[in-house]
Amino acid sequence: MAVPRARELIDTLKLQPHPEGGWYSEVFRSSASVTPDDGRAPRNALTSIYFLLEAGQCSRWHRVLSDEVWVYLEGVPLALWTCDAAMRTAPAHARLGPVDAHGTRPQHVVPAGHWQAARPVHGDISGDTSGEFTLVACMVGPGFVFADFSLVPPDSDEAASMRHHWPDLASML
Fold first, then answer.
1. Percent residues over pLDDT 70 in the chain
2. Distance between CA atoms of 98 and 167, rounded to whole angstroms?
């Protein structure tokens, strides 16, 4: 069940369910277009969305064929994991939120084609879990189209590798 502030954001920002989990709404799509150098058709130069995860939700392991910038806006910090396209190296972890001495930063870039997954960090420093949600903005360039988006298929080699090597992160498949 959504906490009051999360429900307010979902309603005010007109967020809709996202296929990877959570809630989203596109807020910008550039009128300029670019042609990616990897053979894809022309894309809008840049797109931007609001993306909200409530407690218990995650952004499932997925990839986008363009660079994606995640920017923390509100709520509890966000744990963001990234892994190379073949899932052959250990996932790297970034914590998005207000800047602190422990490495939390408000922005992180996921390179094109890298796998990524995220979830809110439960509880703040005081132990209060009543506001467990995270609101971020995600910008993609060249711009996002669903044809450039894929989830890790549950029966794929990537999923098997995740379950074998990093079972604690496999819950986000």
1. 94
2. 29
Assess contact for 26 and 47: CB atoms under 8 A: yes
DSSP single-letter state for residue 87? -
Domain spans of the chain?
58-69+80-108+143-173
Task: List, in order, residues 6 or more apart from 76 with CB less than 8 Å away.
Answer: 97, 120, 121, 122, 123, 124, 131, 132, 133, 134
Contacts (Cβ under 8 Å, ≥6 apart) of 110: 64, 67, 68, 69, 70, 80, 82, 116
The yes-or-no verdict on residue 130 having pLDDT over 80 is: no
Q: Would the CA dihedral through 92, 62, 163, 72 be positive or negative?
A: positive
Residues in Cβ contact with 160 at an 8 Å cutoff, skipping those fewer than 6 apart? none
| Under 8 Å between Cβ of 69 and 107 | yes
pLDDT for 35-52, tens place per residue?
Answer: 999 999 999 999 999 999
How much is the pLDDT for 80? 98
pLDDT digits (tens, 9 = 90+) for 75-105: 999 999 999 988 888 999 999 999 999 999 9
